[in-house]
Amino acid sequence: MEGVVRIIEVGPRDGLQNEKTSVPTDVKSAFALSLADAGLREIELTSFVSPKWVPQLADAAETSAAAMLRQDVAWSALVPNAKGLERAVQCGYQRIALFTAASEAFVNKNINMSVEESLDLFAEIVLLFRHQVPNGFVRGYVSTAFECPYAGRVDPTEVVRVCSRLLEAGVDEVSLGDTIGVASPREVRALAQELRETVPDDKVAWHFHDTRGTAVANALCALDLGYTSFDASAAGLGGCPFAPGAGGNLATDDLVYALEREGVATGVDPVKLAQASLPVLQILGRAPTAKAQLAVLSACS
Q: Which domains, from first to last, does the chain contain?
């Protein structure tokens, strides 16, 4: 079953954007290259957001220059606006990501605009990007796909509406985020049922957080439903800087282990993957917590 599932590694960007300690540029680029050495072929490397808001990624251009020398990886970057897009294109990115949410309160607190304003802005950015990079790839993050930290449960019909608007604007793929890690497999099935009336399965990726320990179960549920694209972060790094109390991302280590045990070949070396995040964790002063990573490291010691 090799090649059936896509793993989009978001650790270098989503994993580091909200850390109080800034990781040195050379360590970031080495981290990304180690992930590539482990077999990951889609990596979201950084974000071209203002250093005022995310100082941890102020070195986006430098990190990109070092990592993107490796050309067998589909590198991508998050862009918040036209200025960020310009910087990303100058760095040679062929793939970009945009960010909105299905919750009005979340979008307002996160990017200081309404959902509609964000959708209008991103339609303009997609047009600009297509003009400069005609064969480029655009993904749209839709956060709070299940619940918002400020407004509670999110209506699945609003998630579908936002996804549809993004796809109509020319986005190639939407990534649905369980931003505060509350979803269960039952809720994944319910949202998938709503989505399938409008949004093709191959246009959807799932971005689960492991706040309550359900991320792997949710990913396997989505896999069982026929979805094949999943975001994950090495060692479970990251979460959301604007979602109070949110835990880390689904650990790539745990996802790879679960998929392989289910008979899905990922092409990822679990030992190299487990070791890739260690220099970053050391700088952050944090011990590994991803269960599959701990098991691999224990077996290697």
A: 6-300 (3.20.20.70)
